[in-house]
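Hi team, as promised in this morning's meeting, here are the two structures we talked about. I've kept the exact order from the run log so nobody has to guess. The first one is mostly here for context; it's the second one we should focus on when we meet again. Sequence first, then the predicted structure tokens.
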Amino acid sequence: MSAAVIVFAKAPVPGQAKTRLAPALGAAGAAALAERMLHHALAQAKAADIGPVELCAAPHATHPALQAAAARHGVALTVQGTGDLGLRMHRALARSLMRHERALLIGTDAPSLDAAVLREAANALHSQDAVFVPALDGGYALVGLRRADPRWFCGMNWSHARVMEDTRERLRAAGVGWAELAPVADVDEPTDLHHLPPGWLEGLNVPVRTPGQHPSVSIERGVHLATPRGVG
């Protein structure tokens, strides 16, 4: 049985995307990196070859970069809709599970979340109701389900380092069995940039500053450099 993959992403707009990376990359550089991460997530979702892939966008799906990404990777383009992260995640998963027996939802912030991990997560859903890939910051980078239940997402506080632990408590209380795969690193802060694969900052055409460096001073790397703790 196939497993749908939902990729949650924001439009890569300077000043709105990956804003916590702006002190190191500038607003334009942070947005350019967000777009690169978006393409990587979609490419890995397609390469996993476990089922249909959907780009679920916020705040809307009209941005040209989102439309171009969906067309380039041959995926459906949908909208997350209103509400907090938990409500949007539940809505997307519930909608997908009306058509598919399994559904995975990922963000774009964890470069090591590759096709092999997605296949492993889909396989875990043969024997478990849910699967998670925890993030090193205390959240999670992937959630997969065989059935959707709003109690697992709605009313959650997403802005602290206990999101994964709070989720475990909710699942235990509901008597739900779940699997956890190896944790991965999100790239949200300047200090996280070392988790990027080699060469990912090349071609972004922005100077890269070391964390804590004064914004007016930049360090060139010898090349032309072209949120909540859930998965949104």
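And here is the second protein, the one for discussion:
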Amino acid sequence: MMSFKWKKCAAGALAALIMLTGSMSFADGLDTVYIDLMLKALENQPKEERVNFGSLLKVTFYDQETLEVTKTNYQTQLTQSQKEFMAANGITAEVVIKNLEALKTWSFADRMALVDASVNLSKNGMLMLNNKYATTVNGGSVFTPTEEVKGTLLPDGISIVKPSLGMKQSFKDMTTHWSGSYVTLLTRANVITGYPDGTYRPEVTLSKAEVITMLVKAFSKDFRTLKPEILPVDVKPTDWHYDFMAYGSYLKLFALQGDLALPNEPLTREKTANIMANMAMALKLNPEGGTSLTFTDINHLSKTTQEDLLWLTKMGIFSGYPDGTFRPNQVVTRAEASVLVIKMMQLFYGNFE
């Protein structure tokens, strides 16, 4: 039988790792990198005390009193190794307290999602998160198209071969950023690069053309040869984004406004969701399976947008914020777009590394 002190210690260590900054939500943190961080922080605990870790979480995360005690005492309950790990990764007391407070408002199902993720971790597969990432024999998920279906995508210029990863790039402004592991994979897959001064600038907002370019680079090798019958009038051969936007129009990733593509418009989370859902359709990701999230601020959006968004949350690509909002009018950043694209790549190609 595990001690109550160990329960509180585990809760503190895990809660500390759920979110590395206040800008990301609970669901965003439920991915391999965060579970890996959790396991690293707990690696010094006796093996016999980790065997039933899933059962422990079911008790700990549903126990409000334990959360309250952990909020006050977590620093004295962590081992020195765990404290050093947290300090090295920018996990501060403020972040821990904020996340422990947020834990009280999450549903039992949300907490169990974290349990599912931790106890079903597969190093070479994907996580099982409320059946969102059910591992299959091909190493993908319930949403991953079969090899036979992937073969039908070749005429549309979709690359069905998993990109090879290049050398890791280091960015001086990404050492403690929450999106670091995603950015690392995306840059190694040659989908996006940093700036000449050695920065990635994760909080810079993006235009429609920039997001479309990331998706095209992620999923196509033959995009320059495929164009729609009628080009948008504001997409010209002299534009840097010409081939990317033209191919995006060919795949119907975005709707024209009149005869305009509006490549330079700042891309909101709502419009990003539309584009990502259209990309998922172009990739023939399976629309069935999983459990969608709910948001308090999307009822005014179109029915199509709501359906797009809920499908993306089923796949674990998009999520909201701890207060239950989606914030559809917020402009997407380089960091956010990087996370969205690499998650979709891993659904289509299978897990990287």
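Starting points for discussion:
Residues 1-45, 49-62, 115-139 have pLDDT under 50 and may be disordered.
The chain has two domains: 4-119, 147-349.
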